[in-house]
Amino acid sequence: MEVHEVEMVMSAVAASQYPTDQLPEIALSGRSNVGKSSLINKLINRKSYARTSSKPGKTQTLNFYRVENELYFVDVPGYGYAKVSKKQREKFGQIIEAYLTNRDNLRGLISLIDGRHEPTDDDIAMYVFAKYYDIPVLVVATKMDKISTGKWNRQEKIIKEALDFNPVDKFVCFSALTGAGKDTVWEWIEQQCDIGGRR
Length: 199
Prior knowledge:
Layout: E1 6-12, E2 25-30, H1 36-43, E3 62-67, E4 71-75, H2 86-102, E5 106-114, H3 121-132, E6 137-142, H4 152-163, E7 170-173, H5 182-193
Parallel strand pairs: 2-4, 2-5, 5-6, 6-7
Antiparallel strand pairs: 1-3, 3-4
C-alpha cells in the first residue's frame, strides 16, 4: 500500500477507549525493543512517526495508528523487559490479552521476533496464544540487516522450529535499514484486511 495519510488516533488501556469506526485492525507484538516502531515507520514511509527508542519498555498502552482511513495498526506493549515491575508486566499482559481475545475488528497479529537469536519463551508463548485463539499470524524476523543474507534461511529454520510454526501462517525476514520484506508484510496485511493494494 502506498501510504499518504496516517494518524496516531489514540492510546488505550481498556475496550471503552478503542476506536469505534469499525476499521479492520492489525496488532503488532514483540519483545521490548524488537523493532515494532521501526517496522511501522517503514510500512507507512515515515522516518520517526512511531517513536523509536533505545530504552525498552517504552510502549505501555495500545497505540492505534489509522492508515489511509482503511485500517489501524495497533502497537501493543512490549514484553520481556526485566526492569519493568512484575505488577506492571501483569498489567501489560492483561491489556494485551483482553484486546487480542475480545476485539472483533482484529484481523491478524504481526509477531516480531529478533531474527538474530532463537525465539524467547515469551515469543513462543505469544505465538501459541495466538494459535489457540485462531488469530492469523505473520511472524516477522527483525534486525536481519545485522545478519549476512546467506544465513537468513538458517535463521528462519531455527525460528520456525522453536515456534513449532504452522505452515498456514506467514513468515518474512525484515530489515528496517534496507526495507527487505516490506512488500511481503503489506501483501499479508492487505489480504487479512481485504483491502486493495496500491504499492
